[in-house]
Amino acid sequence: MVVNPQSQSALFVGLVTLDLIYLAESAPQNNQKIVASDYTVAAGGPATNAAVTFSHLGNQATVLGVVGSHPITQLIRQDLATYKVAIADLEPSTNAAVPVSSIIVTQSTGERAVVSINAVKIQASSSSIPSEILHNVDIVLIDGHQMAVGIAIAQIAKAKNIPIAIDGGSWKTGFEQLLPFVDYAICSANFYPPNCHTPAEVFAYLSSFEIAHIAITHGEQPIEYLSCGNYGVVDVPRIQAVDTLGAGDIFHGAFCHYILQNSFTDALALAACVAANACQFFGTRRWMDSPKQC
């Protein structure tokens, strides 16, 4: 873990999963059995992986999501404890199984295939939000998988002048209620609000909510951004990817770290460096043992 003399605190709101990650020559075809060359098990979900990254960079991270008491949640709890991420459980008494994701990473390209349920069946009420959850929090990231909770948190954070970032991996119903509170919209190339088909239309849509800082990532291609009305691009490092799983999540966690100390464009560039480094290792955790720092 990085030692950060200016440790910050962040709340990450959204999806908590258990990820079973396999490295193989390719994804299986119908009626085919394949043998993986490597595997790993870790807690997952956009908000969760971002929290782990934020913690690794020397900060205090809390995940607000549904974990519950099902036996497999012990694997999640142990993993997050290892990386010093606190859990604020929205449904601590539920014995329902958390969503499990099965991921196959293609060895030659680093591309991944994912089967997941996400949080559709475990939506929590905003009444489940723990009191004082935003005490001493410097930034909030919301991934949209717990939308009702995310909207309520955004309203509270805005009243406290706590900056709010969203992980716009894909459009989810309810984002239109969340966007008026957002300071940083960090979106993937797959984030298309209603009637939007191009990055220009996405920028225009998000700008209509008076979001000051917007970025659209394009994998290994440059990041497009619109910051206080100024358009530009940020180059990303060129690498040979081993595994792209979680790259966006790691980018968001790193962004939350760097934006507290840097300009928007510098934070994007530094976050891209961290995500590129992570893509050179299998799984969502092994990159943290790398000596390279951005």
From TrEMBL:
InterPro entries: Ketohexokinase-related, PfkB_dom, Ribokinase-like
Keyword Transferase: yes
Pfam families on file: PfkB
MF-aspect GO terms: kinase activity
Keywords on record: Kinase, Transferase
Source superkingdom: Bacteria
Domain Carbohydrate kinase PfkB positions: 9-286
Protein name per Swiss-Prot or TrEMBL: Sugar kinase
